[in-house]
Amino acid sequence: MSVNWRNRRKAKKRPTTEQSLRRPQNSFSVRDQSLEPPRGVWLLSDSFLHVEVYNSVASLAVRVTGLNMKRNGEIVQFQTIVTPTTDRLESNVTFPLGEGYLVQLVVENVGANPKRGQTFVRISHQQGNATASFLNRIILADYLENGIGLTWPGSNINSPFAGRGLINSFTIANPAVGLNWFQTVPANTLWRLISVYHTLVTSAVINSRSIGIGVDDGAANFYWQSYATTTQAASTTQSYTWQNQLGNVYGFVIVHAMFGDHTLNAGMRLRSNVTLLDGGDQLSAIRVVVEEWMSL
After folding, report:
1. Straight-line distance from the first to the last Cα atom of the chain, in angstroms, rounded to the nearest whole number
2. Closest C-alpha among 140, 158, 133 to residue 64
3. What is the DSSP string of 59-99?
4. What is the pLDDT of residues 170-182, one digit of tens each?
5. Residue 95 CA to its chain's centroid (Å)
6. For 189-233, how does the pLDDT look when each residue is reduced to its tens digit (9 = 90+)?
7. pLDDT band (50, 70, 90) for residue 146
8. Which residues pair with 284 in a beta bridge?
9. What is the pTM of this model?
10. Neighbour tally for 191: CB within 10 Å
């Protein structure tokens, strides 16, 4: 019995489009769809994606999802999650991509809801994963905001100082009786001072106190100081605020003008500076408003 192999070869059919799509849900082939290959980041066999997160929000995770096209035209989905610390220091993850093209990236927040100025994400293409590795390209860099996310292509490469920062208001614990208060700017942080408020209750010791605030280097070496235009007598209670407007007196609150932008780098101290402060004087109700950025 003879077999006509030529006819048998002709009878063999190529898989249909429906059959060719029967692949795992996280991948498909560009060749099956006759699609144009993407033009973007070409990846070598030792290419890695390096994700950096600088964060000040508790209970936050950053999820990075992407698509990668292999040399054979197969599109593969990948995902990684970074759980950053809240100390504004770098948390990172590096994982392999393999040879092909990077097609897209999406960055989302999971858990907490960060505001602009609280979580900065930078993603780069890294060549190699050892001591000889080097940065090949920064893909995206910007703040991650709840409900917006970041994408590539789409999102920009921005400095952490670009655009508005976080408006951060906080209370400083009362110092011990007879002492000034201090607040150190956290690591990897830049502040623009908006307003300062505090109250001073003086003892019966008869001295005229001059009430001021200032910024020093942490060792009482001042960069600048600003004083109220009036002094405070013994056995009195007076509140003070420094803000960007003309000075005035409103009831028991003395408003002192603080014109211009006053920026504070990490490690600097915002503080009170009361002259002739008596051992029985008490500073309290200390509240500060700043605009805050990450400082990498």
Report:
1. 80
2. 140
3. TEEEEEEEEEEETTSEEEEEEEEE---SSSSEEEEEEE--S
4. 999 999 999 999 9
5. 22
6. 999 999 999 999 999 998 899 999 999 998 989 999 989 888 999
7. confident
8. 199
9. 0.81
10. 25
Q: Residue type for 275, please? A: T
Among 176, 41, 21, 144, residue whose Cα is nearest residue 99: 41
Separation of alpha carbons 6 and 73, rounded Å? 31
Please report the DSSP string for 253-266 in residue order: EEEEE--S--EE-T
40 residue type, one letter: G
For the beta sheet containing 222-232, the strands, ordered from the edge strand earlier in sequence to the opposite edge, are 182-184, 269-272, 209-216, 222-232
- The token pair that represents 215 in the structure block: 């910024």
Q: What Rg, from alpha-carbon coordinates, does the chain have?
A: 30
Residues in CB range of 186: below 8 A, 6 or more apart: 56, 87, 88, 266
- What percent of the residues of the chain are helix, what percent strand, and what percent coil, each to the nearest 5? 5, 50, 45
Q: Mapping DSSP to helix (H, G, I), strand (E, B) and coil, where does residue 173 land?
A: coil
Q: Answer yes or no: are the C-beta atoms of 240 and 253 closer than 8 Å.
A: yes
Domains of the chain plus CATH, in order, are 23-152 (2.60.60), 166-294 (2.60.120)
Handedness of CA 17, 19, 20, 24 (dihedral sign): positive
d(CA 275, CA 242): 17
DSSP symbol at 38 = P
Nearest alpha-carbon partner for 56 in 194, 189, 191, 192: 189
Tell me the pLDDT tens digit for each residue of 89-139.
999 999 898 888 999 999 999 999 999 999 999 999 999 877 778 888 999
Q: What's residue 134's pLDDT?
A: 85
pLDDT surpassing 50 at residue 22: no
